[in-house]
Amino acid sequence: MFAATHIEAASKDEFYAELAQQACALLHGERDRVANAANFAALVWHALPAINWCGFYFFDGRELVVGPFQGKPACVRIALGKGVCGTAAQTRQTQLVDDVNAFAGHIACDGASRSELVVPLIDARGVLLGVWDVDSPELARFDAADRRGMERLCAAFVASLEPAAAAA
Ligand code: SME
C-alpha cells in the first residue's frame, strides 16, 4: 500500500527515509523557495499512492496563500485558525485528520478529499513559513508513520532554504 513505484521499502519509515534522501538531493544547492517547493511537491506527488492533492500554503504575514502544488486548483487564501491548514499554522502542530467531514471548519477545495495531513513549516528562528498539506480520497489514509515521515520531509524542505544549506 505504501510502496511507491520507484522506491522499494520494507516499511513506511524506510520509505520516508529514502524519500527524504531524494528530497535532500533534489533541493541541495538551491535556496529559492518557489523552486524548491515546486520540486518537493512534484517529488511527493509521484511517490505517494492514494493522494489527490499535495502542496504548500505560505504565510504572508497575515494569512496563508497557496504556493506550488500538485492536484486540482485549490482555494487561494486561508485565514489562520481556519480549516485544517489554518489550524496547523495557528497551533504550530501537525494535523492528522482521518475524516475531513468530521473536522469542524474543514475547507473543501477538492470534494474528493476524505483524509488530510498538514505539517506546519517553522524555520530555525521559529518563524512560521506556512504549511505543507497532503489530501487523500481514502478515509484514514495517513497514520503515525506518515506523520513522522512527512515531518521529516518537511524538515528537509525548510533546511534547504537556510543559508547554510546552499553553502554546504
Ligand atoms: N482542506 C484544507 C484546505 C486546503 S485544500 O485541501 C487544498 C483545509 O481545510 O485547510
Q: What's the pLDDT, averaged over the residues?
A: 93
What's the assembly state of these chains? single chain
Helix content: 25-40%
**CATH-assigned homologous superfamily:** GAF domain
Global shape:
globular
Care to count the β-strands?
A: 6
CATH topology: Beta-Lactamase
CATH class: Alpha Beta
- In spatial order, strands of the major sheet run 3-2-1-6-5-4
Strand content: 15-25%
Task: Supply the helix-strand structural class.
Answer: alpha+beta
Helix-strand sequence: HHEEEHEEEHH
Count of helical regions: 5
Describe the structure.
This protein is α+β, with helices and mostly antiparallel strands and 168 residues long. The protein is built from five helices and six strands. A six-stranded antiparallel β-sheet has the order 3-2-1-6-5-4, sandwiched between helices. The longest helix has 18 residues, at 144-161. The chain is globular, with a radius of gyration of 15 Å. The model has no long low-confidence stretch (mean pLDDT 93).
SSE layout and pairings?
Elements: H1 12-27, H2 33-47, E1 53-59, E2 64-71, E3 77-78, H3 83-91, E4 95-97, E5 115-122, E6 128-136, H4 144-161, H5 163-167
Antiparallel strand pairs: 1-2, 1-6, 2-3, 4-5, 5-6
Helix pairs in contact: 1-2, 1-4
Bound molecules: methionine sulfoxide (SME).
